[in-house]
Amino acid sequence: MFGKLVYGQFSLKETFWKYGIMGIFFVSLATKIFGAFLNQKINGMSVKYYYTHYFSPLNIDNMILFLTIAYFVFLFALTIYSIMVWFGVWRSSKEYDKSIWLRHIARLFILFVIYGGFKFALI
Fold this sequence. Notes:
This protein is an all-alpha fold.
């Protein structure tokens, strides 16, 4: 499925709406949820500040460690998925012959969707 997405073998409509808009929304939402729980657990300080000033390997808070790992795994997944969707929309829009305007609008708008997904997901 992901190979077909990257190589643009789905229609532009399916690639843009199903994998682009909805997919990026759900992955960024999951990232945001883990980030919000992590932010609440470390009392609003940055993750870097927490791990450089408060983290002790001898007295590990397992929940904070789990939330940190989950947040960064989902952030990495969002990055990889966004790259795949960008390639998929770009390649499937190349095959779209109904309207040249929709082809370029989809290419431009998916960049805004990816930017918005990252802006929403980052804590």
